[in-house]
């Protein structure tokens, strides 16, 4: 520490001396104060630890507020760095081994597989706090019996209904829902975002209703890298996709933006989607229903859990753990995160408070039998094949059963490497 | 001798390096700035322990000072900045990519062996199931750290080599879960804890004399739990041992710990794998088959795109070069318009315009037709070339206009006098002359299109996918976008930087070879005239 300080100061002295000697005046004088200020603030900060947290814009406000509270209570400076969501994971994986990365990042639980195989996240011990969280949220952050993240939000998709078009609660089956939507006479009976690359996530509840989960599950609910969506369930689902494509109910031309715009314009009474869409539907009267099943089993959507990860090489591990386990897990912070991001909280007490909103309560009900989205690293090999095969079947360019079998074989080959 | 001549003489005698003219002081100022920046960089590198960058920076700084203050290095003064940038931004990048292509860097092999061992040990130290949570404070005696916990209503203290034992202590009056003082030990304040974080994180206090009972550690300096390691690293044997099953994991040649049964531990490290990545790209049928299809399309696309852009650009330039055309300036500005829109934005706009169900082209221009501009394998290729034409022709138009306007008028006049027809003059004189001045730009344009990642990524995303390929590659994927998805950089597969680098090197060799041949051909063309 001391050596570093001396070097920094020497560097500054040499730099400013040279700069002053070189340009002899205002320029050098104007340049040197700014590094000097950073240096002095960083030296005082490192004496009391200095946490760095990477967040995207949806969590910035709430985390900054929690950081300020922590700063006032402990005197530890917490720097909240705003990052592009897509940059957080790759940069974290690359930077942690160099010792440069942040102490904490915020992100969804499905990063977990990649982060653990690369050894860049540290396990957390929540102790008694664990019982205060929604069990699914902890299950999602668990690998091999260890918890690797502090959950703060649980989100799943449901059937969003425009109550002005269909005032009664939705039917339990796909066919009945489509019939109800057709009876309204809008442009689309129901709309689901598929997109040119497919959307296995949004279509997953229909797939599970045919009994075709992506991966096999262990007794404790964790997934093992064994593809379970082949076989008869998968074939039935593929045939269903082909039929919906033919009937025009599913189409790759309907991208996420198209689907949201159509629902917002009241061109359809139903859309399959999550709480993140609600911002765009402020002008409508809405209700959230459980997803209809297309096959004979329950329609189980994926649960996505948002949380905070701790770097495996954090130099401020004690402070970071304290911040995570004892501050970010408080009801006020979890509720503030819900208010700024709109995602239903993972902490049970905060979730109960948020359920005063009937829409949040509706999404909770729709997520009753939801399953965590697989976070094992092998899931990364699934998405692309899954989406494009679904699109091919919907378009009618692929023969359902053989295409589905080929997809399963390809994913298995990709997982083996 | 006039004064001016005398001054010139004087300047010739003394070198610029020793001449204290205003220019020298400008140079001195610039060099001082550069040296100051360099010195700061050097100290920063030393502080971070970045030896490689330190040495490189030092060498560049010494070379720069030698070049600009020495009498002998006149030629180097001109080429030094260029050479430095070439070294840093080209040669280093190529060499480093080459180095990575011989390793297995990627998901699961992210860092060094030591980091992998640390991560494995960290991940496999678990809280003993159902064990108690102990309220804890960190204590210190003679520089030794220890923990004080409250167990069964009694305060116990222990350190790394001494298991917990009951001591005389006082509890906080208001909060009985807090220890307020202990005989013989000092309780660490929060700021002490903060400054000793890594030592406290590393501290394990055995719960009893039996090692199998586990030891207490804390993550937040408030609560302690009993932990047991499930993995043990033996540095002498360089093996990992599973403490529960006694299975030994040996490091295999591939940067992972492997047991005799072939099971591997999840976190690995980066090792050299020789030619494996290159062999995989060509021998593994999953990659090889789409690779050659993509290579063919990339070549066709780059040639077609450059040729079309050039022809359209030249055609329009020739027409607008004719003084009989009215409003030439306005037309020229209009034609340059697509060039003013950033390429990736232009591609994104076209994605929307060409959408099959909702795009402007189908909905408005074709009256609601359902043409799969971006989803049909052949139409998608045509669309890519057309959009690339739309983006690229203004550039060719500009340089052709410039080349046409700089053609010597006397040559054309001579041709006219010799009785050459318009067409003959154009083919025999205009075209070759324009060609010579634009050929290097055509070659660079080819290299640019060969790696035109933005256009493909934004317009089609490489799609539509090959229905029969077993890797996520599509009909309009060019090599660089194929590398991006095959190596998992887009998140559609596990990341494999080694494979990505190997394929990048292959692309580099292809583009380099084509460019070298093309430059040689151009030189021949020049010699012919």
Written description of the protein model:
The complex is a heterodimer of chains A (417) and B (529). Chain A is of the alpha/beta class and 417 residues long. Chain A has three domains: 1-30; 50-155 and 304-366, Periplasmic binding protein-like II (D-Maltodextrin-Binding Protein, domain 2, 3-Layer(aba) Sandwich); 158-300 and 376-416, Periplasmic binding protein-like II (D-Maltodextrin-Binding Protein, domain 2), CATH 3.40.190.10. Chain A is built from 17 helices and 13 strands. Chain A has helices at residues 2-23, 26-31, 33-47, 60-74, 85-95, 112-117, 135-140, 174-184, 200-208, 231-247, 256-264, 317-328, 331-341, 348-354, 358-366, 383-395, 400-416; strands spanning 50-55, 77-82, 104-108, 142-143, 146-147, 149-156, 158-162, 215-217, 223-227, 270-273, 286-289, 302-310, 371-372. In chain A, the strands form four sheets. In chain A, strands 1, 2, 3, 6, 12 and 13 form a six-stranded mixed β-sheet that branches. Chain A has a three-stranded antiparallel β-sheet with strand order 10-7-11. In chain A, strand 1 (50-55), helix 4 (60-74) and strand 2 form a beta-alpha-beta unit. In chain A, helix 4 (60-74) packs antiparallel against helix 13 (331-341) and helix 10 (231-247) packs across helix 16. The longest helix of chain A is centred in the N-terminal third of the chain and has 22 residues, at 2-23. Residues 1-48 of chain A have low confidence and may be disordered. Chain B folds into three domains: 15-101; 125-229, Periplasmic binding protein-like II, CATH 2.40.430; 285-528, MetI-like fold. Helices cover 56% and strands 13% of the residues of chain B. Chain B is α+β, with helices and mostly antiparallel strands and 529 residues long. In chain B, the strands form three sheets. In chain B, strands 1, 2, 3, 4, 5, 8, 9, 10 and 11 form a nine-stranded antiparallel β-sheet that branches. The relative contact order of chain B is 0.08. In chain B, helix 10 packs across helix 13 (377-405). Chain B is elongated and about 115 Å long. At the A-B interface, helix 1, helix 6, helix 12, helix 16 and helix 17 of A face helix 2, helix 5, helix 6 and helix 7 of B.
């Amino acid at each position: 520490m001391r050596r570093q300080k001396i070097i920094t100061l020497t560097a500054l002295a040499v730099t400013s001396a040279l700069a002053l000697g070189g340009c002899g005046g205002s320029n050098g004088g104007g340049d040197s104060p700014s590094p000097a200020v950073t240096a002095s603030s960083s030296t005082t900060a490192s004496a009391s630890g200095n946490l760095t947290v990477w967040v995207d814009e949806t969590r910035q406000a709430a985390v900054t507020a929690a950081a300020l509270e922590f700063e006032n209570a402990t005197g530890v400076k917490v720097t909240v760095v705003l990052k592009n969501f897509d940059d957080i994971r790759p940069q974290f994986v690359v930077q942690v081994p160099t010792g440069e990365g942040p102490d904490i990042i915020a992100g969804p639980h499905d990063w977990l597989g990649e982060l653990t195989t690369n050894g860049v996240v540290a396990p957390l011990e929540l102790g008694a706090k664990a019982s205060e969280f929604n069990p699914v949220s902890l299950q999602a952050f668990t690998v091999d019996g260890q918890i690797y993240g502090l959950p703060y939000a649980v989100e799943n998709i449901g059937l969003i209904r425009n109550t002005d078009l269909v005032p009664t609660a939705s039917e339990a089956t796909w066919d009945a829902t489509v019939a109800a939507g057709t009876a309204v006479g809008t442009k689309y009976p129901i709309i689901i975002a598929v997109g040119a690359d497919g959307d296995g996530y949004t279509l997953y509840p229909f797939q599970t209703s045919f009994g075709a989960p992506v991966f096999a599950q262990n007794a404790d609910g964790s997934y093992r890298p064994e593809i379970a969506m082949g076989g008869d369930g998968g074939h039935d689902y593929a045939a269903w996709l082909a039929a919906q494509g033919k009937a025009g109910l599913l189409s790759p031309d309907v991208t996420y933006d198209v689907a949201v715009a159509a629902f917002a314009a009241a061109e359809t009474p139903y859309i399959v989607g999550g709480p993140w869409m609600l911002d765009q539907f402020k002008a409508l009267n809405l209700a959230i229903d459980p997803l209809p099943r297309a096959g004979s089993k329950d329609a189980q959507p994926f649960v996505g859990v948002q949380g905070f990860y701790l770097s495996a090489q954090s130099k401020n591990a004690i402070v970071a753990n304290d911040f995570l386990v004892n501050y970010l897990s408080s009801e006020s912070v979890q509720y503030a995160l819900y208010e700024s991001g709109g995602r239903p909280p993972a902490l049970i007490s905060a979730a109960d408070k948020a359920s005063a909103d009937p829409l949040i309560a509706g999404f909770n009900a729709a997520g009753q039998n939801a399953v965590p989205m697989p976070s094992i690293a092998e899931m990364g090999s699934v998405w692309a094949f899954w989406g494009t095969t679904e699109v091919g079947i919907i378009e009618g360019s692929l023969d359902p059963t053989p295409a589905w079998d080929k997809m399963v074989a390809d994913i298995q080959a990709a997982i083996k490497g | 001798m006039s004064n001016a001549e005398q001054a010139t003489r004087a300047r010739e005698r003394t070198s610029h390096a020793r001449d204290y003219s205003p220019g020298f002081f400008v140079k001195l100022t610039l060099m001082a700035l550069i040296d100051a920046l360099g010195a700061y960089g050097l100290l920063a590198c030393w502080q971070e322990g970045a030896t490689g960058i330190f040495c490189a920076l030092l060498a560049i700084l010494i070379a720069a000072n030698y070049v600009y203050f020495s009498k002998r290095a006149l030629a180097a003064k001109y080429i030094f900045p260029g050479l430095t940038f070439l070294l840093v931004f080209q040669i280093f990048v190529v060499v480093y990519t080459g180095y990575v292509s011989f390793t297995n860097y990627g998901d699961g092999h992210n860092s060094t062996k030591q980091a992998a061992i640390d991560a494995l040990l960290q991940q496999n130290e678990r809280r003993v199931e159902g064990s108690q949570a102990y309220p804890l404070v960190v204590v210190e005696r003679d520089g030794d750290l220890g923990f004080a916990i409250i167990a069964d209503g009694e305060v116990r203290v222990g350190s790394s080599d001494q298991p917990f034992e009951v001591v005389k202590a006082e509890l906080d009056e208001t909060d009985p879960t807090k220890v307020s003082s202990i005989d013989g030990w000092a309780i660490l304040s929060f700021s002490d804890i903060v400054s000793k974080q890594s030592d406290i994180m590393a501290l394990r206090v055995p719960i009893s004399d039996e090692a199998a009972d586990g030891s207490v550690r804390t993550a937040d300096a408030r609560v302690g739990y009993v932990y047991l390691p499930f993995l043990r690293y033996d540095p002498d044997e360089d093996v990992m041992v599973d403490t529960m099953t006694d299975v030994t994991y040996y490091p295999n040649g591939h940067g992972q710990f492997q047991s005799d049964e072939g099971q591997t531990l999840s976190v690995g490290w980066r090792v050299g794998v020789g030619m494996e990545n290159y062999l995989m790209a060509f021998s593994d049928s999953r990659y090889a088959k789409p690779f050659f299809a993509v290579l063919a399309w990339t070549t066709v696309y780059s040639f077609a795109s450059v040729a079309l852009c050039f022809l359209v650009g030249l055609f329009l330039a020739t027409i607008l070069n004719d003084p009989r055309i009215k409003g030439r300036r306005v037309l020229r500005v209009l034609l340059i318009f697509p060039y003013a829109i950033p390429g990736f934005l232009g591609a994104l706009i076209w994605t929307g315009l060409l959408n099959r169900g909702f795009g402007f082209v189908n909905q408005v221009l074709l009256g609601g037709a359902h043409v799969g501009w971006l989803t049909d394998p052949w139409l998608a290729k045509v669309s890519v070339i057309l959009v690339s034409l739309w983006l690229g022709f203004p550039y060719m138009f500009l340089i052709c206009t410039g080349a046409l306007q700089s053609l010597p008028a006397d040559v054309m006049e001579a041709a006219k006098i010799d009785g050459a027809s318009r067409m003959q003059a154009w083919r025999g004189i205009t075209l070759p002359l324009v060609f010579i001045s634009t050929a290097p730009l055509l070659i660079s344009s080819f290299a640019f299109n060969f790696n035109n990642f933005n256009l493909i990524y934004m317009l089609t995303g490489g799609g539509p996918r090959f229905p029969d390929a077993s890797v996520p590659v599509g009909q309009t994927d060019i090599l660089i976008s194929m590398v991006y998805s095959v190596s998992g950089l887009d998140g559609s597969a596990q990341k494999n930087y080694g494979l990505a680098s190997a394929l990048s090197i292959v692309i580099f060799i292809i583009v380099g070879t084509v460019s070298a041949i093309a430059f040689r051909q151009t030189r021949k063309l020049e010699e012919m005239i």
